[in-house]
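re: ur question from earlier - yeah i can do the single chain one, its not a big deal. heres the input i used so u can compare w yours
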Amino acid sequence: MPRKGFTLIELLIVIAIVAILAGVVFVALDPLTRFRDARDAARWTDITAILSAIRVDQVDHGGRYGYGIRHDAAAATSTPSSPFAFMIVNATTTPANCSVTCDSATTNRCANLSQLVERGYLGQLPVSPNGAGSWSLTGNTGFYVQINANNSVTAGACESENASSISVTR
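and the output i got, formated as tokens:
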């Protein structure tokens, strides 16, 4: 009486075909790029939230920027043609050196925007997802803010992975 079943060769061929298909799908999906895109999307969301909080705070204070921006970012002498960008920090004491390599150059000054959390405009100051840099160790957020010549505010991420740069101006 003959037995029905698969031979070892048939099983190995099926396993090899499944492995090849899995490899092709893995390469086609490119998970590293998807992770980079996800971190960039989180950065876009975070800077939009920061900029919205800055604007709501400005409206609530009669058109003036909050202390962290008015005192820290606007106090430095910058020319309208090349405004300074300041690292956004969330610290009880502002770090002495905030010079960090960003898509937009920063000075060695910070803008402490913790008052946005204290006043309820943000649940917490977001920290940029770690790509090449690590932000959370020193109170730096991985985001910058600058006041432009027309009194608009630009917020941006210090690094982007798949986008050329990540910044929003309002």
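The mean pLDDT is 81. not sure if urs matches, ping me
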